[in-house]
Every structure is written in C-alpha cells, then in structure tokens.
Amino acid sequence: MHPVVLLIGSLLLLIALRVPIAFALGIASFITISELGLSYMTVANQMFTSINSFALLAVPFFLFLGRLMNDGGITDRLLKVADVTVGTFKGGLGHVNVGFSMMFASISGSAAADTASVGAIIIPAMKKDGYPAPFAVALTAVSSTIGMIIPPSIIMVLYGAFGNVSVGALFLGGVVPGLLVGFGQMGYTYYIACKYGMQPSPRKPMKEIAASIWYASPALSLPVIILGGIMGGICTATEAAAIAVVVGFILAVGVYKNVKVSEIPALLSDSVISYTLPLFCVATAGIMGFLIAYLNIAQDVADFILGITTDPYMIYALIVGFLLIVGTVLSPVTAVVIFLPILQHLGQVAGYDQVHLGLVVVLALTIGLVTPPYGISLLIASQIGGVSSVKAFLAVIPLICISLAVIALGIIFPDVFLILPKTFMPEAFGIIS
C-alpha cells in the first residue's frame, strides 16, 4: 500500500472508530513509519521537538487563569458592565450577550466556557423578553466563538507554537477581526429587535455605569496587562500569561474572595489535566508533520491546488471552504495540528503572510464550533435553551455569514487584520522600525 494512502486512510479509520485524535495521530504515524522501515527513534525525536516550545507554556497559564476567573465571580461583574453599557440600546439583552462575550473573550480565550457560563443566564432571559428561542441560542453560541479570536486565544498559542509564527502578532491581529465580528453580531441583533418589536431598557444613571465599571475594573485590567506587555515589548505572550495568572490569583483570592487558597490545588490539577490531551495531540501531530514533509504531501497538495487556480483570492477561498468542511467534524485544535504543515506550505507557495494566514485559519475554524455535528458551542447552547440542533443551526446561518464577511474583508484588504501587529510588532514581519 502507498505510504500516503496508509497514513491518511488509517487516520480516517481511527477517527471513524472514535479513537481520541491524539492517539489516532500517533497510531497512524507509527504504522506508516513501520511500513517505511524508518527508525522508531524518529517517533520520540519528533514528539519531543514538537512540544519543546516556550510559547506552549502560555496554554496552561491561560487555562488556569480562566478557571480562576470563572470561579472568582467574574461572570456577574462582566454581565453588569455589558448591561449598563450596551443593554440600553434597542435589542438590549442581545447586545449584552455579545458584549459579555467580547469582554469574557479577553480573559478566558475559551468558547465553550463562555457558552456554558453566560448561556444559563442570558438565554432564559432573552426568551422571557420575547426573543425567538432559536435566535437566543444561536446568538449565544456564535458570540462565544469570539473567545477564539480576541486575545488571549488558546488556539492562536497552539498555532503560533506549532507553526513557528509570532503568538504576539497573532494576538494583536485578532483584535480588529474580533471586534468586527462582535459589532456585526450586534447589528444583526438590532435588526431582530426591530423585527420583533423589542423595546430598549431604560438608560442607566451615569453613577450606576461608573460604579459597575469600577466594580469590574480589576478583572478588565487583565487584557490590558496581556496586550500591553506584548505591545510594549516588555514580555512575550507566555510571560504575559504568567503575570496575568499572578494578578488573577490576587483578584480571585484577595480582592473578590470567591476562591479560597485551599481550592487552588484542585484548580491547578484541573488545568493541568485539561492541558495534557492538547499537548499530547501536538506531540503526536509532530510525527504526522514529519511524515507529511518526508512523503512530500504538502507539495503534492500545493501542486494540485495550483493546477486548479493560481489566483491568490481563489486559493484563499479554497482554504476557507476546506476549513469550513473540516470544522464540522474536527475541533479547531485538532484541525490545526493535523493540517497546519499543508496550510503553511500552501501559504508560502501562494505568497501569503504567515500571520495573516494564521488569522484566516483561526477565523474559519471558529465557525466549526457552531456547525453540526461537532459544533460544541451550538450543542451546549441548544441544550440550555431547549431548542433542537436543526432549528438552532438555521438561526445561526445569518450570523455565520457575518463571520464569513469579516474573513472576506480581511482577505481582500489584509491590512484590516495586520494593522495592529505591523504597527506594534513590525519585527514579526521582518520590518525594521
């Protein structure tokens, strides 16, 4: 059997048999290495090389930070800020939903955590206020995906570490598209509110607005610390994550006092366990990446696509279309670790900037969180709202179109995505300031 057929075929078979992707990658690669007669030391070497990255240390820090903030009472504070700032516009609760997700994204970087934490509160409230249940579910699910775009984004850390791309540049590049997606969702919410005759909430007194922002300001300082440190060249993304954890610990234990010191070991344990599977997935993907290079698969795929079209926009369209299909069955982390070598090689051949390519890939894969059958965010929100997945997905289609419009805008006008990283991290693009 041809090694490429053996590698891809065994991987797909193992995935179909519901073998965890981390193990499926390792087993398929090991079978192919055995068939090729390569040294088994290759397995250990490639696994070690893949995880021997300082940038990957940011992931457990951000996971622990997210746990501290979730258990530290941050949700109620952010919801209050969202309510007093955007809740008074027409479609108030919908705007609160999106506004909360944008703020929560700047702390947790997790879509599922966002959906679960706010969904139980906001979905029943939106239904009670007269919003169609499928729309409430769809908006909650889609807005939660902003957590993968606005920094800190765990998927961007993995992409940067595995693809040798500046994590700081990816973080900065995620700000503008994240805001555009969020504001686009607010615009659609306003349309729905007008369609169903939703009335805005009474405007809040300035004193209440100021008090709510002040109440949440310690937590809102975390994204300032993370991005400020990176933009100012003071620290790397990993170092910023470590500093943010220290601040988060002080807030959760000393300021908000919702987390006891005795609970910290359990939170650390949960964070470490949550990190092990993605890390092992990266390790086994390193073997797969080695085989992709050894068998020249990336070049063959690039030649095939370039045989169809050489237009850079069409190539990007094919990449996005492929990622949309992949995202329906694979998680973003899985998709990145499997296909990153091929995507990056194709990007190099097509002349794409690697930071820009990374942002497009992340944006496209976030859509997979709300498309069946994987769609973890949509599944969580559907269960909370008591809405079937089919009805929720139909309601989510217009919101998906907003994300696709932002991706198209960034492809046609790359500087929309790259203006911040090029301004504050020119060294990531080989620009001498």
How is the secondary structure organized here?
Blueprint: H1 3-16, H2 21-36, H3 41-51, H4 58-71, H5 74-86, H6 92-105, H7 111-128, H8 133-144, H9 154-163, H10 167-195, H11 206-231, H12 237-255, H13 264-294, H14 297-308, H15 312-327, H16 332-350, H17 354-366, H18 376-385, H19 389-412, H20 415-424
List the defining traits of the structure above.
433 residues; single chain; mainly alpha; 20 helices
Task: Explain what this protein looks like in three dimensions.
The chain has 433 residues and is an all-alpha fold. The chain has one domain. It has helices at residues 3-16, 21-36, 41-51, 58-71, 74-86, 92-105, 111-128, 133-144, 154-163, 167-195, 206-231, 237-255, 264-294, 297-308, 312-327, 332-350, 354-366, 376-385, 389-412, 415-424. α9 packs across α16. The model has no long low-confidence stretch (mean pLDDT 85).
- Please indicate the percent range of residues in DSSP E strands (runs of 2 or more): under 5%
Main β sheet profile: none
Count of separate structural domains: 1
DSSP strand count: 0
Radius of gyration: 22 Å
Gist of the model:
By secondary structure, the protein is mostly helical. It has helices spanning 3-16, 21-36, 41-51, 58-71, 74-86, 92-105, 111-128, 133-144, 154-163, 167-195, 206-231, 237-255, 264-294, 297-308, 312-327, 332-350, 354-366, 376-385, 389-412, 415-424. The longest helix is centred in the middle third of the chain and has 31 residues, at 264-294.
